[in-house]
Amino acid sequence: MEPAEVSEPQFAPSERPEGRALLATGSPFAPVTYRGTTYVIAQANNALLFPGIGLGTIVSRARSISDGMFAAAARAVAGMVDVGQLGGSLLPQIEDLRSVSATVAVAVAQAAAAEGLARAKLGDVQQQVHDAMWQPVYRPVRAV
Known about the structure:
Layout: E1 24-25, E2 32-34, E3 37-39, E4 42-43, H1 50-60, H2 67-78, H3 97-114, H4 125-132
Parallel strand pairs: 1-4
Antiparallel strand pairs: 2-3
Helix pairs in contact: 1-3, 1-4, 2-3, 3-4
């Protein structure tokens, strides 16, 4: 990830596209206020897709990853934003990566099952994904 000041487009006030642009960058940028509306700049990052694609594939025990599974992952990410919110982000926030990954994994596992690629029996897919997720919990360390 590049620091924002040396990457991506930098708009001067005279270059703004009159509020008619869809923008996502590879680096984090602060929100921009234009004509009284604050616009959240989406951070387009493959981390929004690939952990969930991997997890959904593992949970479903899919033989391969199909175009349909990738499309399901993309639709899951797109479905996590409010497109009706003026100035809203085009993508979920990177800070929500665990919930994004879980949502993507469920969609991918369901797509694998629908396409006949899943080798695991899927019941409560959401629970199965949750159970398969790594939980950042560590046992206490005792001095001996």
